Amino acid sequence: MDSSESLWQFMQQQSGKLLQQTVQHIGLTFISLLITVLIGLPLGIYITRHKAAARLVLGIAGVLQTIPSIALLGFMIPLLGIGPLPAITALFLYSLLPVIRNTFAGINGVDPGVKEAAVAMGMTPAQRLFRVDLVLAFPVIMAGIRTATVINVGVGTLAAYIAAGGLGEFIFGGIALNNTNMILAGAIPAALLAIVLDFLLSLLQHTGAARRRVVLTLLPLIIVGLSSFYVLPMRFGSRLLAGFTPEFMGRRDGDIGLQSVYGLHIRTVVISDAVMYKAIYKGKLDVISGYSTDGRLKAYDLVVLDDDKKIFPPYYAAPVIRRDVMQRYPELAPVLNKLAGQINDSVMTALNYRVEYLNQSPEQCAREFLVSRGLYQPARNGSKGIIRLGSKIFPEQYILTDIYASLIRGYTDLQVESKTGLGGTKICFEALVNHQIDCYPEYTGTALLAILHPPALESQQLAGNRDSVYNYVRRHFETIYDLEWLRPIGFNNAYALMMRRAEAQQLGIHTISDLAGYLKTDKR
Amino acid sequence: MIVVKNITKTFGTRKAVDNVSFTVGEGENIVFLGTSGCGKTTLLKMINRLIDPDSGEIWINGHRIVDQRPEDLRKKIGYVFQNTGLFPHYTIEENIATVPRLLGWDKKKMAARVGQLMEKLNLPPDHYRSAYPHELSGGQQQRVGIARALAAYPPVLLMDEPFGALDPITRASVRKDFKELDELRSKTIVLVTHDVQEAFELADRIVLLDKGKIVQQGTPDELLFEPAGDYARNFFEDQRFQLEAGRIGATDYPALIRAFDHFRKRQH
Ligand SMILES: Nc1ncnc2c1ncn2[C@@H]1O[C@H](COP(=O)(O)OP(=O)(O)OP(=O)(O)O)[C@@H](O)[C@H]1O
Ligand SMILES: [Mg+2]
Asked: Does residue B21 lie within any of the structural domains?
């Protein structure tokens, strides 16, 4: 089990990735710092000479900084897509204020007597700037650059959401997987990076007047040098580019499995699933890790690669219900089971597509589906009792909950109360165990890996087999939690690798093995 | 030669300099004297265009100052600040060599010139060449300020209370070294002070200012013995005896006695 492994072991195991992410993070930090300084410094200088513009410029930079960083990244996506460009732009905008403000304050803070002396000696404005103002304002300007650097290191973790890499990959992967070691493996180096860079810059900041001119010439070189860190690792690897969610990156049944079982070594960026589908559609990615029933599969004309070596455990959905509720209302189970086997992958994908993409309400969608299957019955408005249905916070679960609600109202005298949007697996499951809800749709694979956590060996033996996983979770839920798994609905919302249909066809890739094979021959 | 014609400078509603005209001859030392706030600094700064007048014109050696690039003008005018205005990030040598460096002198010539000035101003070069201003006493800093103003042999020297911030003993010593500088002989110097003694010691001619206006200009003797009104008379009253005594040869007894009587009368 993961949590018994120490942080140190985790970091050693993942040292390659850790190094790569750290180097990327440094690069990302300094590339945007470079741009920030290149733009912020002249702007700061400009506003010391045009005081009227000062308020406007500082105001705008100030407003930029109050935008929550994640929102700033969000604004960037429609404008600049995914990857380094929007991430660097967002970081740049975010760190602009301290550089402009400190340049402005630093130059204004130079002793007016000294400034006047420079004028009186016959220095030109440029000579005054470079020989007097900037050199004397240097400590204050450096303080601004330090602040900007620390901001960049911190906000840079969010770059992992839009495929720009960095230590955020571990942090957000760890959060998604509830893996503390993974979170710390990203968070500790990020914090150390901020502290170390801040310290090193503070040494530069406090260099005496004599060596300051040396620092002033060296500093740009250092920044440019560190910026190149970001570009270097991007050069290597396969022609195809994969975008995986942070969660997928860290899972046994994710990237780790792809590498060990299929020998699939693909150039990979980490990206949030909110922007992943659009990115592959736009051709920015070639392979993504999605869910096999996601409506966007249909919307963007993607194909699922066949998992021919069965590393993704089945995620068959079925209602999970408390046994005490089932016994109290014996009519309930047969009604819920009416849906068993009714929805296959493509039907579920189509339903999701209607909700996610055509913006139909889950309720309407559920009703039309039942009507088309001849299962719809108007509500009886009975008053025998109340069933509380839960759902996680995504469209597929909303649709399923609405279908079940309609079935219960139509076929029994029970009332239904929907508690939709219960966050993730953990919240839903806890609510069920603690009698806050009576029933919710769960997936076999999720129950296996996120709730039961069987030893690695046992889950490997189960892997891939639909019935054995279902039976395993059913047995254990009953004995451990007194919960009953009803019959599966039919579809398998498993992890899946997806490609654009056109590209997959052109390259003749149908299975993950095909993809691995193609990548082996394609390596430069 | 500096010719100043009808210059006026207003800050807000206050006339800091009010329709002032004067001429400084080639090689002449002229001292502006007046109480705090009477416009001395403003006047001085208009000569090297640190401040531009609202109206009026200034010529230096036959050229209107507004017809030259201000940077070029300033490199030909030495300026000593009341508060030294040394560059804190430059060594003493770099401070003194500021203008020569801007003029692109070669290194050897610059080093030699710096050494020469430091010797003349009693700043042992071996000791202080590579020191920073904050490592020097106020008097030493003021010497560096003077050396910096003189470095590139400017024909004109503007000095704003150059000894003002020093204690009396240091002031006397810096002033003595200053007076003995051979290079000052041929220079046109405009010096600002509120110290009457100093004015009398250094001036060929004194311009007495009040509220931005010239009250009287003339030689020290003229101001002392032929004051052009109450303000001028009262201005020297406190120090009249010492001043007059200083002016009169030590053997001119009748004049001395006249001066002493005058002094005694005022005491009662
Ligand atoms: N930049 C400025 N803005 C507004 N008023 C000014 C400015 N410079 C000078 N003044 C005003 O102009 C007047 C003359 O100032 P100036 O500095 O020339 O006096 P000063 O004779 O040099 O006095 P001090 O002996 O105290 O140095 C003063 O009333 C001062 O308040
Ligand atoms: Mg003054």
From this structure: yes
Q: What is the CATH number of the domain that holds B195?
A: 3.40.50.300
* Alpha-carbon gap: A113 to the closest alpha carbon of chain B (Å): 5
Q: Where are the domains of chain A?
A: 7-236, 259-310+496-522, 317-492
Tokens representing B64 are 């209107």
Give strand ranges (E) for chain B. 2-11, 14-24, 29-33, 55-60, 63-64, 77-80, 156-160, 188-193, 205-210, 213-218
What does each C-alpha distance from B19 to A446, B15, B33, B54, B57 come to in angstroms? 92, 9, 17, 10, 11
Question: Are residues B31 and B62 located together in one domain of the fold?
Answer: yes
Mutational pocket test of ligand 1: of B32, B41, B82, B211, the residue with most ligand atoms within 8 Å of the beta carbon: B41
Whether residue B112 is contained in a domain is answered as: no
Q: For residues B61 and B9, state if they share a domain.
A: yes
Q: What angle do CA A199, A200, A205 make, to 5 degrees?
A: 90
Averages of pLDDT over runs of 10 residues in chain A (524 residues) are 68 85 90 92 94 90 85 78 84 92 95 95 94 92 94 90 84 76 90 93 82 77 79 59 82 80 84 82 87 85 89 89 94 94 91 87 93 92 91 88 94 91 78 93 87 75 79 93 94 90 92 89 60
Mean pLDDT value of segment B148-171: 90
User: How far is CA A115 from each of CA A213, B85, B87, rounded to the nearest angstrom?
Assistant: 18, 8, 9
CATH code that applies to domain A317-492: 3.10.105.10
Q: What is the pLDDT of residue A524?
A: 43
Q: Are residues B3 and B65 in the same domain?
A: yes
The CATH code belonging to domain A7-236 is 1.10.3720.10
Range of the domain at B259: 238-268
Whole-number pLDDT of residue B171: 85
What is each CA distance from B194 to B131, B200, B208, in whole angstroms?
32, 11, 10
Per residue in A416-463, pLDDT (tens digit) is: 999 877 767 778 898 999 999 999 999 998 888 778 877 776 766 776
pTM of the model: 0.75
B37 Cα to the center of ligand 1, angstroms: 5
Query: Are residues B89 and A113, on separate chains, in Cβ contact within 8 Å?
Result: no
Substitution site in B8, B9, B14 for ligand 1 pocket (most atoms within 8 Å of beta carbon): B14
Residue B167 lies in a domain: no
- Ligand approaching nearest to the C-alpha of B17: 1
Q: What are the residues whose beta carbon lies below 5 Å from ligand 2 (ion)?
A: B 41
Within 10 angstroms of residue B112's Cβ, the number of other Cβ atoms is 11
What pLDDT was estimated at residue A124? 95
Identify whether residues B71 and B2 lie together within a single domain.
yes
Q: How far is A42 from chain B (nearest CA, A)?
A: 22
pLDDT in tens, B92-146: 999 999 999 999 999 999 999 999 999 998 899 999 999 999 999 988 999 999 9
Pick from A113, A116, A121: CB nearest B98: A121
Burial of residue A67 (CB within 10 Å: 0-12, 13-18, 19+) is middle
Asked whether residue B94 is assigned to any structural domain, the reply reads no
